[in-house]
From TrEMBL:
UniProt keywords, alphabetically: Signal
InterPro entries found in the cross-reference section: SusD-like_2, TPR-like_helical_dom_sf
The keyword Chaperone belongs to this UniProt entry's keyword annotation: no
Species whose genome carries this gene: Sinomicrobium oceani
SUPFAM superfamilies: TPR-like (SSF48452)
Signal peptide segment: 1-21
Protein name: Starch-binding associating with outer membrane
Keyword Signal: yes
Length: 530
């Protein structure tokens, strides 16, 4: 798909990428040029080695903090005329990084297709040894492809790598977004069944830089991703979602989830799906956050969602900040965020009086992992399912999800090994009191309880998972955020979807005509029916 020159350079790009990152991955895989057998594990490792998953400078600075974190208010943004204007060049790079392996992404679409070609060229006997890579690779592909659908809607998928498959130049058609979701959900069930009946291999354990070959974790991840996608479609096809979700939740032995064993005091390092930084990585998000700037505390998140209930996550999510007086730094007396109603002039003049995101947890933490999926998100999904359709204790799942979120953010804070001060996690009784606080306590009508689930999930996802946060915000309508109106015509409010990059419109113009009418920033993804 796209420019024929990009397509023709695809395999060469993959080989260059593998060669360049082999030292960083500490010889996790062999060079794919050396043998056909080595190529499939190598391709798989390359899919995982994705800076669109890790909290890299480029992805955070150019995509998250300028788009999805703004549209969800999970990060601060300047009240400027262009606040809601999509950057065509930056979103084009995100788009391209899904399809073609490059410096900022694993090129999961093209890389998985290369795996398929190598796999099909093996004998039936040889295929058995690589089947586990193909199934795990498809889970990675579905995770990233579903994000593309959530951001844009219809995307080229089924014909997106025709050159590798049949050596012909063919721009990919745009597949229907709802049909893609249906396929993804079905494929995940099949893959879950596969993982239930297979064992890991020495090769898979070596090349799996995400879960170290743990088949049980891959099975849980697969089921949890399916749960996420089913809940995503639950407002447009509730019957399908409800039936499948209840089947999963009522058969935990058959469909185990990444729920941390329903333990609020769990260990994120062993229970969540996290992509660890490369051993050579010594950078952090300081530049990404401060250049825009995005490091100031967002209004609704701190002032409305957290401060009134004395949220125990505040000390690891924010710093009080302050100002320098007579060469001495004087910290602010309390946590507080700048009002979102401030003009850009007020923001520039008064920023020192307000809080910033935490330095130890976010700004100066080279140990931050890429967050693929957490137990807290899974338990929020369970809580919503139980509240809407019964079958379990929604309140218990909700409280467990919040407890796990507290554990998760203190974990991120404590893995910082730079010497910055870390915070001690509050005692269990402090967290219990927090859960009983009005505004957090699981009480009220069904709608009020669902709103609490959705707001707490949005808070947990934050700017690092703002792609997911934006999808959930559009699906649920919560929290009820107020956005200052920008003065730029056509961009006065945030969009409800991204428009296709100009390069895709130009190079895939014939297929683009089929989706051109729906390519507007106020269009809606199929699951967004509120």
């Amino acid at each position: 798909m796209k420019n024929k020159f990009i397509i023709l350079g695809l395999l060469a790009s993959l080989m260059t990428t593998f060669s360049g990152c082999s030292d960083q991955l500490e010889d996790k895989f062999l060079s794919p040029e050396k043998s056909t057998d080595a190529s499939i594990p190598g391709f798989f490792t390359s899919m995982l080695n994705n800076d669109r998953i890790r909290p890299s400078y480029w992805n955070t600075r150019t995509f998250l903090l300028t788009h999805t974190a703004v549209y969800t208010q999970t990060a601060f943004f300047m009240n400027a005329n262009t606040a809601y204007q999509q950057s065509d060049s930056y979103t084009d790079q995100y788009w391209t990084d899904f399809y073609v392996s490059g410096s900022n992404g694993g090129g999961v679409m093209s890389t998985y297709t290369a795996m398929q070609v190598a796999y099909e060229n093996l004998s039936e006997e040889e295929k058995a040894g690589f089947e586990i890579f193909m199934n795990a690779g498809k889970v990675v592909l579905i995770n990233e492809a579903s994000k593309m659908v959530d951001l844009w809607g219809d995307i080229p998928f089924s014909e997106a790598a025709s050159l590798i498959e049949n050596s012909s130049i063919q721009n990919g058609k745009f597949d229907d977004q709802q049909e893609l979701y249906t396929t993804f959900i079905s494929d995940l069930k099949t893959i879950s069944d596969y993982f239930a009946s297979t064992e890991t291999t020495a090769s898979f354990s070596k090349y799996d830089i995400l879960l170290s070959g743990d088949v049980n974790m891959w099975r849980r991840y697969t089921n949890s991703l399916r749960l996420r996608l089913l809940m995503r479609i639950s407002n447009v096809d509730e019957s399908t979602a409800q039936t499948a979700i209840q089947e999963m939740l009522n058969n935990s032995a058959t469909y185990p989830l990444l729920d941390g064993g329903d333990n609020g005091n769990y260990n994120p390092a062993s229970e969540d799906v996290l992509l660890e930084p490369l051993t050579t990585y010594i950078d952090n998000l300081n530049s990404a956050l401060t250049e825009l700037p995005s490091h100031y505390a967002p209004d609704y998140l701190l002032n409305t969602a957290m401060l009134p209930v004395d949220d125990p996550r505040i000390p690891v999510m924010f710093d009080k900040f302050g100002k320098t007086v007579s060469n001495n730094f004087v910290p602010n007396e309390e946590f507080k965020a700048m009002p979102i109603t401030f003009t850009s002039a007020q923001q520039e003049q008064q920023f020192a009086n307000y809080s910033i995101v935490d330095s130890t947890t976010f700004m100066q933490n080279p140990s931050l992992p890429g967050i693929v999926m957490t137990a807290s998100e899974v338990n929020f999904l369970k809580a919503e399912a139980y509240e809407r359709w019964g079958g379990g204790d929604a309140g218990q799942a909700y409280e467990t999800a919040i407890q796990q979120s507290v554990s998760f953010y203190y974990y991120l804070n404590n893995i910082n090994e730079t010497g910055l001060p870390v915070e001690e996690k509050p005692d269990a009784n402090v967290i219990t009191e927090f859960l009983a606080t009005s505004g957090v306590a699981y009480e009220g009508s069904t709608q009020e309880k669902l709103q609490k689930i959705w707001i707490q999930k949005w808070l947990h996802l934050g700017f690092l998972q703002s792609v997911e946060a934006w999808a959930e915000y559009r699906r649920t309508g919560f929290p009820e955020l107020t956005f200052p109106e920008a003065n730029l015509s056509g961009y006065r409010t945030p969009p409800s979807r991204l428009v296709y990059p100009s390069s895709e419109k130009n190079y895939n113009s014939q297929n683009y005509q089929a989706v051109q009418a729906q390519d507007v920033r106020d269009g809606k993804i199929f699951w967004d029916v509120d």
